[in-house]
Write a structure and sequence with these properties.
The chain is mainly alpha-helical. It folds into two domains: 108 residues, Up-down Bundle (Zinc Finger, Delta Prime, domain 3); 61 residues, no CATH class. Helix 2 runs antiparallel to helix 3, helix 2 packs antiparallel against helix 5 and helix 3 runs antiparallel to helix 4.
């Protein structure tokens, strides 16, 4: 029978330099950042930093998770900023200079707007697939000349174009660039999106009804 002090998380069995449980200090760090409590979060970060290089790395791995789990689209560039700060951190040999990067990362995340939608999307996809509610679908338009089956079916760039391969949702500039017409022409389909072409085509002109009727009455 497992001992009550044992847990699958190895950090639940470790203590900091001042006698705190490491997993609890990690919890203080994340929950304080979630609530925007900068001082409480940086105190937790300092405790992990002082304990040793292993817990300093634990601190940074947790900051990386917080950047996408709790901050998310509130600061989309947070992962890149953390990566840059981490690279600079490891080049420092003086403790205070080195820890400044941790403190700066904590301030950045705690002060950012918060957004959990990436975490929710991750939980959603795990759950709906596990329950059999959804799975990835391969539609006919996906089987183009970029796939083995598409090549075997003889599908070329014209198929890719006709099936909407050039379509971009929420395109930055729908009018395109000075090179757009040339590229579309070269890709196939005469540079015309069939769906757009059909939508924009004028209705057929059947002529004036009276003229039509008059023509029908002539022998």
């Amino acid at each position: 029978m497992p001992h009550p002090d044992q847990h699958e998380d190895v950090w639940s069995r470790a203590v900091t330099v001042n006698g705190f449980r490491v997993d609890e200090i990690r919890s203080v760090l994340q929950k304080s950042i979630r609530r925007g409590l900068v001082e409480e979060a940086v105190l937790a970060a300092w405790e992990l930093f002082q304990t040793g290089p292993e817990t300093e790395e634990l601190l940074w791995r947790r900051l990386e998770i917080i950047a996408v789990e709790d901050v998310g689209l509130g600061l989309p560039e947070a992962p890149q900023l953390l990566e840059a700060m981490n690279l600079q951190r490891v080049r420092r040999t003086t403790d205070l200079e080195r820890f400044m990067f941790s403190a700066h990362a904590v301030r950045l995340l705690a002060g950012a707007r918060k957004d959990r939608t990436t975490m929710e999307l991750t939980f959603w996809v795990q759950t709906v697939t596990a329950r059999g509610e959804r799975q990835v679908e391969v539609q006919d338009m996906h089987v183009d000349h970029h796939t083995r089956r598409g090549v075997q079916l003889g599908r070329d760039a014209d198929f890719w174009w006709r099936s909407g391969g050039y379509v971009l949702a929420d395109q930055l500039d729908p009018a395109g660039s000075p090179w757009s017409d040339y590229v579309r022409e070269a890709l196939g389909g005469g540079g015309v999106d069939p769906a757009m072409d059909a939508a924009q085509a004028p209705a057929p002109d059947d002529g004036d009804p009276d003229d039509v009727l008059a023509g029908m009455s002539r022998p």
